[in-house]
Amino acid sequence: MIERIITILRDLPPERQAEILDFAEFLKKRTPRDRMLRPYGFCAGEFQVPDDFDAPLPGSEMELFEP
């Protein structure tokens, strides 16, 4: 596959080659690296959800979210 890509790239004008290089670098940055996932319950006990979590917000705070 690499050989085919190189063959196609050689046939393209330099401007297009530069575009493809930029795109390849963009893809490389977006590709997730192998990383260890955090274990389940890693933050257990770090914070608590208040009992009134689902209660409506006061009117003054709701105005911040509504146009």
From TrEMBL:
All residue ranges annotated as the DUF2281 domain in the record: 5-57
List, alphabetically, the Pfam families matched: DUF2281
The name this protein goes by in its record: DUF2281 domain-containing protein
Species source reads Candidatus Competibacter denitrificans Run_A_D11
Taxonomy of the source species: Bacteria, Pseudomonadati, Pseudomonadota, Gammaproteobacteria, Candidatus Competibacteraceae
